[in-house]
């Protein structure tokens, strides 16, 4: 299991709590440090895909790991990357074609509106507009909050994004919606900040409200999803 941190960086990230639970459920986990903090983060999403797929390669060669059962999860920035890694474009251009692609993807509170905007011709970071045209055959489970300010508190935002995709991709994507959750519900603290990406790119104040109860519900659902998406041989 590759676990990707949020946009605040790997220092003080949300990933360890997932690693602990996944380890208890019998999964190997790897938490790559893509960047230390928000000041060292690059604006390029494709620039981090090499690290994401290098993590897949590392685990695939690790003793005891089944290379056909490696998943990727992440929150916010890491959630976007976890979803982007399911694009056929990402696997062909940044993955190791001698190895299987990720078997399952679990993006937590990704910015769904941005991917729908891509389908409507608006550039997102440095991703080609055609990147969303095709997905691998892996299962995808999106974890979203009904009060996410990035999505302008639109609980149908991720559903709308999915409906904009090709039918084959739609069949492989499911959503776990937490109606009362904000962005970053698993960060362990409550705080607010202005960001131009919030309110579907119009810019507004975003609040991350700590919800340990929802965090645990999400982890429990994640483990169930992985068992279904990557059944043991």
Q: Would you mind describing this structure in some detail?
A:
With 233 residues, the protein is α/β, with parallel strands linked by helices. The protein has helices spanning 15-24, 46-60, 77-84, 88-94, 112-119, 157-163, 167-172, 198-201, 212-229; strands at residues 2-4, 71-75, 104-108, 139-145, 173-178, 191-195, 204-208. Helix 5 (112-119) links the parallel strand 3 (104-108) and strand 4 (139-145). Helix 5 packs parallel to helix 6. The mean pLDDT is 97.
Q: How would you briefly describe this protein structure?
A:
The protein is of the alpha/beta class and 233 residues long.
Question: What does the secondary structure layout of this molecule look like, with pairings?
Answer:
Layout: E1 2-4, H1 15-24, H2 46-60, E2 71-75, H3 77-84, H4 88-94, E3 104-108, H5 112-119, E4 139-145, H6 157-163, H7 167-172, E5 173-178, E6 191-195, H8 198-201, E7 204-208, H9 212-229
Parallel strand pairs: 1-2, 2-3, 3-4, 4-5
Antiparallel strand pairs: 6-7
Helix pairs in contact: 5-6
